[in-house]
Amino acid sequence: MSSVPISWYLMLAALLFAIGTVGALTRRNGISIFLSIELMLNAANLTLVAFSRQMGDRTGQLIVFFVMAVAAAEAAVGLALFIAVFRARRTIDVNRLNLMRG
Amino acid sequence: METFIFLIFAALAVVSSLVVVMHRSPVYATMSLVVTLFSVAVLFVLLGAPFLGALQILIYAGAIVVLFLFVIMLLNLQKEGEAAGRWRGQLWVAIPGALIFIGMVGLVFWRQGAPDLQPLTPDLVSLKGLATALFTDYLLPFEIVGLLLLVAVIGATVAARRAPDAADGSGPLPREDFVAEETARKEARP
How does pLDDT run across A56-65, given as a tens digit for each residue? Predict the structure, then answer.
């Protein structure tokens, strides 16, 4: 019984990251962009855990722990900002939030 | 067996993340994100990080996704319409960019090959080792993250608060009115 090579995990993480990038670039709904960013964070976490296993070092797992905490903070602040924006503009469609366009 | 589990959950993660990105209803996209997060949590366990797998389900699938759903329902978001601009420009840049990225990562493994995973060591899996490192070598980052979460909670509360001088009068009462109402209520009491 052979174990899964690390390259499979890294390819999966790259695939998830690419899907998240496409979502963050093409969606117009602010919440959907946020979901895509969470997807990208998760792909990065998967890479860190895979390398942590490969190197036999738990530093990668600790970094993932901190990334999760920061992601929680980011989600709380970002969603609060969306609520504030929605109050002011009645939409969170990013194509219509062009107040600061030059 | 390990390969089998990996393939199942990798396929599940990819399919559900595609649904996250392509579904037009934010609620369905969020529920699909739960599936992705769960699959990645299984892969964490497979890689010998059961604590992170548990955290992933508790924090991400539990707390963050509930927060997302709450905001979606609070704002009463509708489906994204098939508006002009959805297929214009960005998509034609984003998809080739993503394909080039995948291709380059694949090329690296194709040319260099990749070693098999190291066997799991009890030291790597143990929660005790993780906790010891967290509270000795990484104590300062740990405290800073705690502070960051506190600031984020305060910031989120302030940002999402209704402005006191809302034009539609839905904000909290101005201070004088509030005091006057309180005194009136006290006087009305027998």
Answer: 888 899 999 9
pTM: 0.83
Residues pairing with A29 in the sheet: A93
Predicted local confidence at residue B179, as pLDDT: 60
Q: What is the mean pLDDT of residues A39-66?
A: 91
Q: What is the CA radius of gyration of chain B?
A: 25
- C-alpha B38/C-alpha B22 separation (Å) is 19
Reduced to 3 DSSP states, what percent helix, strand and coil does chain B have, rounded to the nearest 5?
Answer: 75, 0, 25
Structure token pair of residue B91: 């998509």
Q: Taking CA B122 as the corner, what is the angle to CA B10 and CA B132, rounded to the nearest 5 degrees?
A: 100
- Model confidence pLDDT, tens digit, residues B61-86: 888 999 999 998 888 776 665 554 55
Establish if B171 touches chain A: CB-CB under 8 angstroms: no
Task: Map tokens 């090959």 to a residue.
Answer: B113
Q: What is the pLDDT of residue B52?
A: 92
Using CA atoms, how far residue A93 sits from A97, A98, B24, B79, B186, in Å, is: 7, 10, 13, 11, 48
Closest chain B residue to the Cα of A17, Cα to Cα = B98
Sort A84 into a burial class: Cβ within 10 Å, 0-12 / 13-18 / 19+: middle
* Residue of chain B minimizing CA distance to A66: B145
Which whole-number Å values give the CA distances from B162 to A78, A84, B74, B168, in the listed order? 16, 8, 14, 11
Q: Do A61 and B130 touch (CB under 8 A)?
A: yes
Rounded to whole angstroms, the Cα distance separating A68 from A41 reads 9
pLDDT at B107: 84
Which single residue is written with the structure tokens 């809302």?
B166
CB A75 within 8 A of CB B68: yes
Contact A49 B124 (CB under 8 A): no
**Spatial contact of A12 and B10, defined as CB atoms under 8 Å apart:** yes
Measuring CA to CA, which residue among B51, B58, B55 is closest to residue B126? B51
